[in-house]
Design goal:
A two-stranded antiparallel ribbon has the order 1-2. A hairpin with a 4-residue loop joins strand 1 and strand 2. The chain is built from 12 helices and 2 strands; from the N terminus they run H-H-H-H-H-H-H-H-H-E-E-H-H-H. The protein is mainly alpha-helical and 314 residues long. The chain binds 3-hydroxybutanoyl-coenzyme A. 3-hydroxybutanoyl-coenzyme A binds next to helix 2, helix 3, helix 5 and helix 8.
């Protein structure tokens, strides 16, 4: 069958909401886009553990420490699901991880910002996981089966992450004036980088059109960003803290919030590796990976031994 006919059959399946599975024929470009997006998503989960891990030993109470530990462990699990989903497309996990460690692969810009106070942990749960949920729930309906299925469990755990973050912010905002100031300071620093998580404006996005045709993306970057602003702005009112955007206003006519311009220079600087923590994040990841070499070798040696025992017993 010609490639053209195969592509027509493939697109007809996508249009009919039939899931594409690993063994199905798929255009190389579809496979490549999925490897790109899923591996970067996995990298984001793993690097995302670092800013929060920074506060595990300094959490203000045992209850907060337990909640944060559970969240950081969840993120590790999300990364492993996503690497496993990427491997179904015929790539080696070790190669993907090497691309992260040598700076070739992207991960979400948001994780290149520092966590300066405990309130940052609240702001990350509330805003960053809130934005992640906005973007990940539609991915549960992604046309590629393994990615969509991985997202179902990830989204359930993200909801817990978002709730524990909002609760931290609520506690601080109802606390002493210094604690409320800490929460406002965290909102000031995390608001705009959270909006950048959704990617460039639609007219600047080289991948969106195709990803939407292939139903990898169900909504555009700007649609999801707008949804996030519409949901989060009233939450800031409930907390009694102010979103750092003088142009943020409710538009009765559109029934959405209008908001100010995003600093895309900052976004692209962070993507180029010039964010506040890019170098530190990669250095920490490389150090952890090298320190874990013996664990990988031991696990491989054990698996080989087990295989040999099985073969000689047969
Ligand atoms: N950070 C880093 N790179 C970004 C980015 C961001 N916030 N937003 C966009 N980019 C990159 C894209 O990867 C693309 O570069 P590439 O072609 O070299 O890969 C380029 O900027 C243009 O962006 P597009 O909008 O054209 O790219 P996509 O169609 O891939 O859309 C996306 C970007 C919306 C992030 C999409 O990739 C996506 O939905 N990814 C899956 C979800 C994800 O990765 N979320 C990241 C956060 S995970 C997380 O927060 C964990 C939680 O537990 C806290």
């Amino acid at each position: 069958m010609s490639t053209k006919s195969l592509e027509e059959i493939f697109q007809a399946k996508v249009d009919a909401e039939i899931r594409i599975e690993p063994k199905d024929w798929m255009p190389d470009a579809y496979r490549k886009t999925l490897i790109r997006q899923i591996s970067q998503h996995a990298h984001s989960e793993i690097v995302g553990m670092l800013p929060e891990g920074n506060w595990v030993t300094r959490a203000p109470s045992l209850r907060r420490k337990v909640g944060l530990l559970a969240k950081v462990q969840d993120e590790a699990g999300h990364g492993l699901y996503l690497y496993a989903a990427a491997e179904t497309l015929g790539v080696e996990r070790a190669d993907l991880v090497a691309q992260l460690h040598n700076g070739k692969a992207k991960y979400s810009s948001i994780f290149n910002y520092p966590t300066q106070t405990w309130a940052d942990i609240g702001a990350i749960g509330w805003l960053v996981d809130g934005a992640a949920i906005m973007n990940q729930v539609p991915l549960c309906r992604c046309s590629y089966g393994p990615y969509a299925r991985a997202m179902v469990r990830v989204c359930k755990e993200e909801s817990f992450h978002q709730r524990q973050g909002f609760e931290i912010m609520m506690t601080l905002c109802n606390g002493t004036p210094e604690q409320k100031h800490m929460a406002q300071d965290a909102l000031n620093r995390w608001w705009w980088p959270s909006l950048m998580m959704f990617g460039p404006n639609d007219d600047e996005s080289p991948n969106s059109a195709r990803s939407m045709k292939w139903k990898i993306k169900r909504f555009s970057n700007d649609e999801l960003r707008q949804r996030f602003v519409d949901i989060t702005a009233p939450q800031a009112d409930i907390l009694g803290i102010k979103i750092p955007d003088p142009d943020l206003t409710w538009n009765e006519k559109t029934q959405h919030y209008d908001f100010g311009a995003i600093d895309w220079d900052e976004f692209y600087q962070v993507l180029k590796g010039n964010g506040p923590c890019n170098k530190q994040r990669l250095k920490t990841r490389n150090k952890a990976h090298n320190k874990g070499q013996w664990v990988r070798e031991a696990a491989m040696a054990y698996a080989e031994k087990k295989q040999q025992r099985k073969a000689s017993a047969a």
